[in-house]
Amino acid sequence: MAMLEELTSTLQTVADRVGPAVVGIGHRRGAGSGFVVADGRVATNAHNVRGDVVQVRLHDGSRREGTVAAADPDSDLAVVHVDTGGIAAVEWHADGRPGLGTGVFALSLARSGAATRVTFGTVAAVDRGFRGPRNRPISGAFEHTAPLARGASGGPVVDAAGALLGINTHRLGEGFYLAVPADQTLRDRIDALAAGEAPSQRRLGVVLAPPHVARRLRAAVGLPERNGVLVQQVFDDTPAAAAGVRRGDLVVAIDGADVDSVDVLYTALSRQGDAMTLRILRGTDEIDVTVTFS
Q1: Residue 50: left (phi > 0), alpha (psi -120 to 50), or beta?
Q2: Per-domain boundaries in the chain
Q3: Is the dihedral of CA 230, 233, 239, 241 positive or negative?
Q4: Which of 128, 133, 215, 289 fits as disulfide partner to 73, beta carbons 3.0 to 4.6 Å?
């Protein structure tokens, strides 16, 4: 009974301390959540915003029009500038990377007319990965068991003192979430987005089929089996098109690293540099193609 009373008291404390800083994003039911990170500044997920203007609903039910400072779909983060009415920002945790078994509290304000939702759970796994809105891998997330309804993406995960541990980003099944940890990297990303600095990722300009599909398609036309990703489409006026990459090419290596998944390509694209070398199997001929990025 004492433990239950303590948990109830902590839930109320978290609700009182953090709840006012939690906001709803968008006007549709279950559009998403967010939270105040500074005066006039709200953090949320990139998949919660569309265009340059977004509706923000505060904890008291009032609605404000916000402007998207910048969004980064590859890390699924966005920052919105909006009149927050002097609401105290959520404080950052000193560490921001909760360990396995850590007790956490998750908050959201997803539905129009509903009150802020606060739930308790524990960290069930760390160093989890998932894919962002553009299918790029996002690594280093932690999984927690605090149940949340749809529309909780973008809301905060905090400790018992209300300090930020992460941002709910990816829903798992019926109510559990993966959260991006609130470490210094996340803090730097949010500061950059708030300043209007959206990161520019290198892009090839192709549509790719994963290795298991590539093997099946090559076998269907009598070509020998080989591990790699198959180019299914090349878009005009892109680095891939300029380099001469063609539909049907099998990319078997990138900068000397064998390609056994599409993630190898994403990892290579995330590195800095003006060019990358693709080893391509074109039919039965193996060639090297240099892709240059402007």
Answers
A1: beta
A2: 2-194, 206-292
A3: positive
A4: 133
DSSP secondary structure of the chain: -HHHHHHHHHHHHHHHHHGGGEEEESSSTT--EEEEEETTEEEE-GGG--SSEEEEE-TTS-EEEEEEEEEETTTTEEEEE---TTPPPPPBPSS--PPTT-EEEEEE--STTPPPEEEEEEEEEEEEEEE-TTS-EEEEEEEE-----TT-TT-EEE-TT--EEEEEEEEETTTEEEEEE-SHHHHHHHHHHHTT---------EEEE-HHHHHHHHHHTTPPP--SEEEEEE-TTSHHHHHT--TT-EEEEETTEE-SSHHHHHHHHHS--SEEEEEEEETTEEEEEEEE--
Dist CA 37 CA 212 (whole Å): 43
pLDDT digits (tens, 9 = 90+) for 236-249: 999 999 999 999 99
Predicted TM-score (pTM) above 0.85 = no
Shortest CA distance to 200 belongs to which of 74, 69, 291?
Answer: 74
Classify domain 2-194 at the CATH class level.
Answer: mainly beta
Which CATH fold topology does 206-292 show?
A: Pdz3 Domain (2.30.42)
- The tens digit of pLDDT for each residue in 97-147 reads 899 999 999 999 976 667 899 999 999 999 998 888 777 788 889 999 999
Q: How many CB atoms lie under 10 A from the CB of residue 125?
A: 12
Q: Any idea which of 87-96, 117-126, 184-193, 196-205 has the lowest mean pLDDT?
A: 196-205
